[in-house]
Amino acid sequence: MKEVQLREAKASLSALVDRAVAGEPALITRHGRKEAVVLSFAEYQRLANVPSFEELLAAFPGEPGDIPDRDRSSPRELEF
Fold first, then answer.
1. Long-range contacts of the stretch 12-16 (C-beta < 8 A, 24+)
2. Which of 7, 19, 20, 39 has the fewest C-beta atoms lying within 10 Å of its C-beta?
3. Which fold has domain 2-60?
């Protein structure tokens, strides 16, 4: 990922956007600190639409019996 100072990003925003659309995001820094990233809208949508853990579990293709029941006994009750 290309790292660009804010001052340079202001001067070349159009080129940064063109590169982001082409698949090359840019990291913008200010006073040496990482502040922002320029990336394509398609990449933003891909990252923003990550399914939640709940959605992943709901999409599990198995049958109810595929996952064993949880052992609810106390660890102190278990014998080794």
1. none
2. 7
3. YefM-like fold (3.40.1620)
